[in-house]
């Protein structure tokens, strides 16, 4: 069943996520119920599911709910959650794909040494479901390596080691790093022979196993349908002239030729002064641009420079340590915006939460979060020989690392460097990913603003339509069940 649900705004279900009661809309509840039905009957019947949709539809929220419910049903270690980037893993209190599958120190499709394999097997032996967030960032070679590692560790030739797999994401947002094969294509040619030898029973294109459960309601912008419509047009490259006109009315930042770091920082200050309770961030295409802004920020006041501290790893855990590379130094000033990188249960503050540095001492950084002020100390980093403060600077981020995060407004710099007025050739999905981080387009600024230079991947559009329109013999019966289910929800609501 490739499930496409009619958008509905009915709020019908309450669940608890990270200690907070959340209301689900009807389509979110339906996807949750249908997925859990698969989970209940998955013994010897693995399933492969994409929960997809535009930004703001609740994909990451459903991931957290499903993770909790699967663990309640099958036990604490029955669900393995991972994500391609540190930023996306942090907000789920999970590990990256490289860390989860120990990819860093081994060649693709190379079996693990006996000790590492035994250690991973002891962790995974009770696992029944693998969840991967931001699947659009995962290239097909990495996906095949996940399949291979799962089979190797769990001692089976079944795809993904016999695990059911649920992936979350939006193919129309940013894809894998440049030149990497997208997830719905075959892997790099140089790896096909070892892939075929090590995972002979898996399909060459693993993506062909997956069916789509689509979310359509943009809950982030549910009170502003016009802005939601503009974002959807950007997502699908529809009616570019209309989008250009609308964004010029609210989002243009000065004259493009005059915009530099100072101008952007001034606009950021203006937005924060006008909206002191709201959170803003600068988004740029390139990491070097991030570093240049951070250098400027460290010149505005006393700087706290915090080096990581090496710790002794217990001998029993060394086989799962990713490597001994030292963590980066952390530099902050009073007033720096930062993002938390792990959960702090004592204060009920969770990874991905934005805060402001209020003060710092030798071994303490005081950060004000929405829940209150917290004195942070260094913590041990998972599978690492180092301890460091669990925060990262978040005044400016690359567009790629911002996926999955949410702000009240963003300032987008669509240039190849701070020292040119020429618009960089953004990757497909770049601008949609950036703008969709914001709750309101009125609180966004863009420079240069040229919608005609923004791109959407044609192959991603084609693949998304294929997933939506994929026909199966029982598809009509399935959709009748869906419509009946929704009708019953409406009847119960009234």
UniProtKB/TrEMBL annotation:
InterPro entries: DNA_helicase_pif1-like_DEAD, P-loop_NTPase, PIF1_helicase, UvrD-like_helicase_C. It holds the Pfam family PIF1. Residues 394-440 form the UvrD-like helicase C-terminal domain. One of its GO terms (molecular function) is 5'-3' DNA helicase activity. It comes from the Eukaryota. One of its GO terms (biological process) is telomere maintenance. Keywords: ATP-binding, DNA damage, DNA recombination, DNA repair, Helicase, Hydrolase, Nucleotide-binding. It catalyses: ATP + H2O = ADP + phosphate + H(+). Signal peptide: none annotated. Residues 24-230 form the DNA helicase Pif1-like DEAD-box helicase domain. CDD domains: SF1_C_RecD. Its EC number is 5.6.2.3. Belongs to the helicase family. This is ATP-dependent DNA helicase.
